[in-house]
Amino acid sequence: MAATLQGKRVAFLATDGVEEIEYVQPRQAVEQAGATAELVSIKPGKITSFEHLDPSTTYEVDVSAADADPARYDALVLPGGVANPDFLRTDADAVRFVRSFFDAGKPVGVICHGPWTLVEADVVRGRRLTSWPSLRTDLVNAGAEWVDEEVVTDNGLVSSRKPDDLPAFCAKIVEEFAEGRH
Predict the structure, then answer these.
(1) Domain-wise residue ranges, the chain
(2) Could you tell me the keywords of this UniProt record (predicted)?
């Protein structure tokens, strides 16, 4: 029996430079499982996704990180892209928003370069996770155990390395989000 996210609300925290496929596929997965997804960003209006290093599609932001109430959400997804998490980790409201999910024990999914924001939020210490290989040193220096695996789950934190891992990542976030708080 497939996991259901009926009645759950999932925040997707992203800004300009988010990797298109890492935003679109996980969002489709949680919506198909019954969740309501909302795009939270560091600015109101629209953001532009990228396909690798080329601008792609624009998406309407539902709420800014400054105005977003983490209590309204059951789970969080942090897509990657090179620029996206670099912008997010320099925004105090985005970092606060991310940290609140860990403080509340809510499940979080993160892929590719997305863990940069987790490092800034100081929530990876003692955690086992994966990422795009270039983040390994950053994660280890922040106290994480980095592994090179398709999908890693650690007490509600689901991580994957790259777009090729999306099928496993999407299935695992739906499963973990259905379980709820950890």
Answers:
(1) 9-179
(2) Hydrolase, Protease
